[in-house]
Amino acid sequence: MTARLGTARLGPGERYAALDSMGSQELDVVVVGGGVVGAGVALDAATRGLSVGLVEARDFASGTSSRSSKLIHGGLRYLEQLNFDLVREALQERSLLLQRIAPHLVRPVPFMFPLTHTGWERPYVGAGLVLYDSLGFSFGFTRGVPGHRHLSRRRALRLAPALRRTSFTGAVQYWDAQVDDARYVMTLLRTAATYGAHVASRAQVVGFLREGERVTGVRVCDLETGTELDVRARQVVNATGVWTDDIQELVGGRGQIHVNASKGVHLLVPRDRIHSLTGIILRTEKSVLFVIPWGRHWIIGTTDTAWTLDKAHPAASRTDIDYVLDHVNAVLSVPLTRDDVEGVYAGLRPLLRGESEQTSQLSREHVVAHPVPGLVMVAGGKFTTYRVMAADAVDAVAHGLDLRVPPSCTDRIPLAGAEGYQARWNSRNRLAESSGLHVARIEHLLQRYGSMIDEVLVLIEADPSLARPLTGADDYLRAEIVYAATHEGARHLNDVLTRRTHISIETFHRGLAVAEEAAELLAGPLGWDAEQVKREVEYYTKRVEAERASQEQDTDQEADAIQMGAPEIVPVAAPEGRSL
Ligand SMILES: Cc1cc2nc3c(=O)[nH]c(=O)nc-3n(C[C@H](O)[C@H](O)[C@H](O)COP(=O)(O)OP(=O)(O)OC[C@H]3O[C@@H](n4cnc5c(N)ncnc54)[C@H](O)[C@@H]3O)c2cc1C
Questions:
Q1: How far is the CA of 240 from the centre of ligand 1 (A)?
Q2: For residue 263, which of 42, 53, 226, 307 is within the disulfide window of CB 3.0 to 4.6 Å?
Q3: 375 C-alpha to center of ligand 1: Å?
Q4: Considering the chain, what is the average pLDDT of its residues?
Q5: Strands 106-115 and 279-283: what pairing?
């Protein structure tokens, strides 16, 4: 079996090489922030032929981009607000991601909208969905998902027996798409690195380089070693989401873009707690609540409240959890309780500051600005439209460079693992036979790695013990933990349990039962000694304990205070030749 050649790895060696490269040349562009927008900018710029660096302060996607509802959608809500351009743009992106850019990572998902009024509601919702379905055609592609259909109450109950009969009068079912958000961002970065971008996590921008008024680069602290380096670049892109204003403060002066944070909390419950063959979307007084199928689980959310506390670890309070449970229980015949909740996560929406005090009313659209020469800022938008945001930001970069820069071509650049995916999927039975893994495992691997599955299978071939599932999180193979460190930029246990896998929210033990086994597996590729393994497990345990305790608090302030008590950075021994 041969590994697919050509896709860049994001291993520990590659990280140091990237930092060295960034420190030793003047780049065309350096991107601050490794969420979906920053990663998208890096790919867009690299594929236009620019030299690119990207620095992320923590783990890739550790900000908002791993904490979303994980939907690639137009947003029915924006349709109701008559924001047709936004919906059309997002649905066109949905069709492109599903069919060309990331068919291994983006999948169709059905939702049922229970109707609660007789008379006007069915034609109203039906007309909206006719429009929603028709706005989805683009770029010569089909929509990529089935069209909507009307259901009587009886048929709806057959699809979703969990619904309380008296809670609705009938239903309409429609289709959207879903994605593993953190995995998508990491795959974007691997793709960008394949096209020559230098990317490094745990590399925080702590200042700006200036020549008079002009920004000429950034000062970066390598959080693994404590050393600082200057990265010179002709253009800097600030893609830091809810941290946009903090970065602007480092530059000095008033920025043109201001970003507010609005917190959204999601819960995970085991799939058997809600008997349904379809996702469900419910109207709430402020917005909507989704019940989204997620492997052997349901993701339920979300809330929408202003947040002004710690941005790195937004805390979910008891009040948030009760809000979500109360709203979903309004339609379930067997209500969920707090004991059914396996996992909880909170994220912060980067909302452009508007006139209104109500965060749900703030704009979801994005803005690109050039606040001082040499600096471009991009903020707002949503996960679904990251590619459009990135193209706009790189257009602004191009404007600031004295070069002829070609237009964006990312609509024709499949992400790492996309090319050859369909063929690998079609031969999954043969792959199961040759690897000795069950076909269900192969399917799981294909939907996470696409055609890069061969790289994981090579690890197993070399060490058959890696074919075993993790004890206590048997959806994942031991090989996936090793691969996360060697190829996917994971630096710490938390990166692997929270973002490369989602064990931290998919198990009642929240990853504690597998922490030691996973840390032992990471020790080899990351060069950890026994002390470091112990520290990683301790750090992870404290973080989980803090999260659990914060979820018992009534207010955001109390929940945040507890989260702030958990240690932030796991110290690591500096590799040879690097000072701490
Ligand atoms: C609850 C919720 C649900 C959502 N659901 C959906 C959905 O279903 N579909 C959808 O399309 N969108 C959804 N969104 C919106 C979407 O998730 C966000 O718009 C998107 O992830 C924002 O990405 P970003 O790259 O701008 O920000 P982020 O992902 O936050 O990235 C910014 C990065 O900058 C880094 N950074 C900060 N300071 C520094 C520094 N000094 N140096 C280096 N790096 C730094 C941070 O660590 C962070 O990783 C949702 C958002 C939330 C909160």
A1: 8
A2: 307
A3: 20
A4: 93
A5: parallel
